[in-house]
Design goal:
The protein has 3 helices and 8 strands; from the N terminus they run H-E-E-H-E-H-E-E-E-E-E. It is α/β, with parallel strands linked by helices and 170 residues long. The chain has one domain: Metallo-dependent phosphatases (Purple Acid Phosphatase, chain A, domain 2). Helix 2 packs parallel to helix 3. The chain is globular and about 40 Å long.
């Protein structure tokens, strides 16, 4: 997330990532869950040779993979809030040899689905900021009302993946 800052603050990344790791133990993870591999990558490390080698190794498996990142690898508008093209390309190269079935992200605070991309709505922000997609903007939004929610990912033993937006307060 933005625990380490923004892409226009690279001079702060190393210190902030170290602080994050001191508090949480790591800035990435890879676990096997049933037949699946679930991988969490550090968006702010895409393009870093060591991180990208780790990511490539994490997704190179005989298991289908669900990848979590903060920022989407696909679907963002060119509005200054998107993942820089060079970093998106580095991430795509790192996962190219893996069986990545879905890439789950937040960042835009909306539910949106396209191909393997699944965006999650926010638990804290209603999506009223000008950089968030809005109805009528040309974006195919599956949930354009800006309501809070969480995504439940369902990983099938046969390698299938689906998801649902959960709003327990509805």
């Amino acid at each position: 997330n933005h625990d380490v800052g923004f892409f226009d603050e690279p001079e702060h990344f190393e210190r902030r990532i170290a602080t994050f790791c001191d508090a949480w133990g790591a800035d990435r993870f890879s676990i096997d869950l049933g037949r699946w591999r679930v991988v969490g990558a550090n968006t702010y490390r895409f393009g870093n040779e060591q991180h990208d080698r780790w990511l490539a190794s994490a997704v190179e498996s005989d298991r289908p993979t669900l990848l979590f990142t903060h920022q989407p690898l696909a679907g963002e508008p060119d509005d200054g809030w998107e993942l820089p093209v060079t970093l998106r390309a580095a991430a795509e190269r790192a996962i190219a040899q893996g069986d990545v079935r879905s890439v789950a992200t937040g960042h835009r605070h909306r539910h949106w689905v396209s191909g393997r991309a699944v965006w999650c709505p926010s638990m804290t922000i209603l999506g009223s900021d000008p950089w968030d997609p809005v109805p009528g903007s040309g974006w195919r939004l599956d949930d354009s009302d800006g309501r809070h929610g969480i995504i439940e990912h369902r990983l099938g033993p046969d390698g299938t993946h689906d998801h649902a937006v959960i709003r327990p307060w509805d």
